[in-house]
Design goal:
The longest helix is centred in the first third of the chain and has 18 residues, at 2-19. The protein has a single domain (37-135), classed as Immunoglobulin-like, CATH 2.60.40.10. The chain contains one helix and eight strands, in the order αββββββββ. A hairpin with a 6-residue loop joins β7 and β8 (126-135). It is elongated, with a radius of gyration of 25 Å. By secondary structure, it is mainly beta. The chain has one helix spanning 2-19, and strands at residues 37-39, 43-50, 54-63, 71-76, 81-84, 95-103, 109-119, 126-135.
Length: 137
């Protein structure tokens, strides 16, 4: 019985130590500020565009946080919209751009497309929107 109690005490002590992060009570708070993805604008209006044209715009963004920003993905709501971006880490204060190409082939009328930008930023995801009115030639 004594050995069971002893083993139980050792197990509980080990569990408490692990729950504290294994640092023996040291302050383990991370002082690094996370990255923040900040776009100059979240929307672009192409206006009237002829059907069959490919139009492009650039969204300027910067890292307004305190550590490197990494964009993991930029996914459009439709296959007609293709975003391209740098996969390199962006240091704090750094600036970059994301190009978005919209192919109007087979489209007509008012078009609204969204791009979901996922990153390691604290404000994740960020949603970009493009608008166009596709007119027949």
């Amino acid at each position: 019985m004594r050995s069971i109690v002893f083993c139980l005490l050792i197990f509980l002590s080990y569990s408490c130590f692990r729950a504290e992060g294994g640092k023996g009570g040291e302050d383990t708070k991370d002082e690094t500020k996370p990255p923040v993805l900040e776009f100059a604008r979240l929307t672009h209006h192409f206006g009237d565009v002829n059907q069959g044209e490919k139009v492009a715009c650039r969204f300027i963004y910067r890292n307004a946080g305190g550590s490197d920003l990494v964009i993991h993905s930029a996914v459009a709501s439709c296959g007609c919209t293709v975003p391209s971006f740098s996969r390199e880490p962006l240091p704090p204060g750094g600036e970059e751009s994301m190009e978005v190409v919209f192919d109007t082939a087979g489209r007509s009328g008012k078009q609204v497309k969204t791009i979901y930008v996922r990153s390691n930023a604290s404000n994740n995801p960020v949603v970009l929107t493009i608008h166009a009115k596709v007119v027949l030639k």
